[in-house]
Amino acid sequence: MKTQHFDLIIRNATIIDGTRAPRYTGDIGVRDGIIAGIGRLEGAGADIEIDASGLVAAPGFIDSHTHDDRLLLSDRDVTPKLSQGVTTVVTGNCGISLAHSPVPDGAPTPPLDLLDTEGGWFRFQSFRAYRETLEAQPAAINAACLVGHTTFRVATMDRLDRVATASEIAKMREMAHESLASGAIGISTGTAYPPAACASTEEIIEVCSPLREFGGLYVTHMRNEDDDIIDSMEETFRIGRELASEVVISHHKCVGTHNHGRSPETLALITKTMGKQAVALDCYPYIASSTVLRYDRLEQSSKVIITWSKPHPEFSGVDLDDVAKRLNMSRADAVEAIKPAGAIYFMLDEQDVQRILKFDDTMIGSDGLPHDAKPHPRLWGTFPRVLGHYSRDLKLFPLETAVYKMTGLTAAKFGLENRGVLKNGAHADITLFNAGTVIDAADFEDSTRPAIGIETVIVGGTTVWRDGKATGARPGRVLMRAQM
Ligand code: ZN
Ligand code: CU
Fold it and tell me: Which ligand is closest in space to the CA of residue 146?
């Protein structure tokens, strides 16, 4: 009998396959970027052999919520994510995407400045133009891309403080249509932020109506995550029904001290609604949020740390109380003085975070902000923190469940076929990690320290991370949704 030959064999791994099935020991054979053998492959040979004794082999992690549209082009190793074992990022969240870019005329309107404070990166006049640029200069990891309603608004409207007119809606609908026809997997909104907060439910339904034809996802940073969260959830579900689309509630959380402890109520509503329509949600494993600096967030937060400031870069990483002292101003005046800026807000309850993370259908998403001078540590720490801190140390759920929440579940919700699972015929996106040592190293003081315990990362059969650094290979692809 002819012995099997592979391009790559991973031997003696503890295989956690991304489906929540119990771990087992085995080998994984890869040919032409696809898993071509899994289990016992003793007699088989390969060009490259990796001994994974003592390590877990899991599907490469999928970051379900990112703002990596630009990072994929400006740091093609996507180091903050690759170092965590992430092999696919979902971009274009919270209404913010590089395509369809506003006509470049100086500094982008917040919150688009989370991607670029100067404006040079907003130069993609179609989703196709963005996708082709990314395909021409591939990154180390894959991307599945959403397009953002806020970007559409800024590109289309002369004033942002009102509902869009019929002709503006028609233009935005065209943008949505082009994007979905060119491979975007869905549309995101960020109605929590000023430029999109003026959009009515009807505007959103009209702009997103091409979702009916293409079957993509409706992904939302909801209008409200504090007192009116239930109304916002109902709005989200209604939009999903009108568009016949799966909805994703982004970074689900209950904001503000007097809303702490409300997650049983919100999760019960999600469970009930899931019986009637498709609902998904993601969560990051921290009690602090991060976005642009906004005065109205201060009273909901026990502590605020500045992540960047255009006029005052020296305040990156400084507590807002100290900024106010140093400027000899009230906190409110200090906010005005250092804007445009970004901040970290300590505004969540640990018990809510744990309850939401533990909820069966919650995917893990970092919501990392890669261009902040002193970013929230979730950018570099999310996935190892769930594996090491929440699963291993706090025993919130078994390791198989932790892996599922960042692989198989996410691929299924986003329609990424043959990703997120280790099985014959799946794409060979594989992360090898040490279950005993894996942990986030980034914290609020030193927020860009790479995680510990991620040994080897493979994308499409090519090794992209080894010995604590990127190999320089860039096999990343732009992923489309499977027709479902
Ligand atoms: Zn958001
Ligand atoms: Cu976000």
Answer: 2
